[in-house]
Design brief:
CATH class of the largest domain: Alpha Beta
Radius of gyration: 29 Å
Structural class: alpha+beta
Strand order of the largest sheet: 3-9-8-7-4-5-6
CATH superfamily of the largest domain: Endonuclease Chain A
Order of helices and strands: HHHHEEHEHEHHEEEEEH
Distance between the termini: 77 Å
CATH topology of the largest domain: Endonuclease, Chain A
Strand content: 15-25%
Length: 253
Amino acid sequence: MKPTDLVQFGLNEKEAAVYLAALELGSATVQQIAQKAGLKRPTAYVIIRSLIDKGLMSSFYQNKKQRFVAENPDRLHLFLESQKRSMEDKKTELQKFLPQLKSIYNVAEGKPVVRFFEGKKGLLTMSEEFLESGAKEAVMVYSDDLVQKVFQPTERTPAKEKRLEKGIKVRSIYTSSTRELADTETSKKAKVSQGRFPITCDIAIFGNKVRVASLGDKLSGVVIEDKNIAETLKSIFDLAWEAAEKYKDKKKD
């Protein structure tokens, strides 16, 4: 058995190495355990004390020399139970402190909050935040081709259904090489030329937040929470929307 096999049960790798060494040695001195575990003596001693606190090792004196012994492996069950109780206690304590922590989190209202996300999971988290934000309307800019490439229908459809369920209205400026997206009661769209206006990001402005997700080779994104930034970018979108609407009307003519 390797020390890494015990890490899943709540021990770190050094604790696992010391515990396994003590199991094999029976009663032993710190020096013997350290050598067996491949650790320096002071480090081994600190870890032994930690394992004693966890109930997985104990000590006794023999000929005035302190020796240490691993407890029966059955003790690992008790250790896991104590960890479970400890985690439940921590959850209960956290609930008491959450309101205070949230009040601290919102103290600096004048300072923009910027958070970064990476990978597809990060982008899905950003999308979920939008759906849970409480916003009733949003404006967006995106490439339909890239959205379809990055996100599977099984990922896009539930998000759309959740948006409809929450009654969030959207205006979107988009590019696409394959299709025209129709307007609906809750979603107005304006298609622009992909050649003249290349778009490689998915941008959403809702409430006091701006979400920008890069859909290129490296998937990454940022959420900026700031009233002034959101309002300014919303104004720029409105200007672009007017131009896109005129462009759409001209195409009809």
